[in-house]
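Internal tracking record. Fields below are filled automatically when a chain is submitted to the structure queue. Please do not edit lines marked as system-generated. If the sequence contains nonstandard residues, flag them in the REMARKS field before resubmitting.
Queue: standard
Priority: normal
Entity type: single polypeptide chain
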Amino acid sequence: MRIGFFGTPDFAVPSLKMLAGEGYTVAGVFCQPDRKSGRGHHVSFSPVKETALGLGLPVFQFEKIKSPEAVQQIKDLNLDLMVTAAYGQILSKEVLDAPKLGCINVHASLLPKYRGAAPIQWVIINGETSTGITTMFTDVGLDTGDMLLKRAVPIGKDETGGELYERLAILGADVLKDTLEAMESGTLTRTPQKEEDASYYPMLHKEMAKLDFGQTSRQLVDRVRALCPIMRCYASLNGEEIKLISLKISETATEGKPGEVLAADPKQGLIIKTGDGAVEAVQIQYPGGKAMDAKASLLGKPIAAGDCFE
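SYSTEM-GENERATED OUTPUT FOLLOWS
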């Protein structure tokens, strides 16, 4: 079976390695073009490109996968199947029709819930206790194709978005392997998604990292851990933007207004009033400084009880 693999970030790497390790013929690997990153604006390869080159696989990078050149390249590979995992571009019908057997996508949620580009973070933001992987046949809609296999996993109470991302990447490769084996044995079944059960969540944006202490303590804790490590949540205090890298729910007495500092000393820690209680800032970072344990930070830079985060 000649397979074209489409993916870009770390999430897709275990699936690509699985295909190569199981002896599938990966005729081509498609990923997003190289981008400049970091302070020096150095051009860096995506994780999928680095992996593909290490495996000796041909790599193709198109700014627009819908372009005539990209479509022709896909057709020239004479693919039996396409596999996608967090590729980063929407595939046109012409592209999807190129392989003989269609296109299978590895999606990091239990469809039809949490369609969209950032399901891993959104399930944590929304306080879900479980999620999983769904393989599906891709159609021209946004994560709307027929479902193939699903596997659910619990979300850890303190698990961050980054930790869940790594677990689901590995799980995705396992579910993809089972999906391809079922396809080859003729036992694979398709289940249409029920639109009435569907939910869609948008891409993440930087404004989401700004904390609103009018929310509940659980909402604030979940947001901080969901966006870790891709974004550091923050709030302003006395004109300074402080990153609140880790929070936990506090049982401290909670009279005060949302955002008010209820306690700030090296023993009690940094306790902040929320919409329904209080949270303790476990780890913080000042502008230009390093991330520090909040209690240790208070030894060198005191904060006064009664101060208020905006």
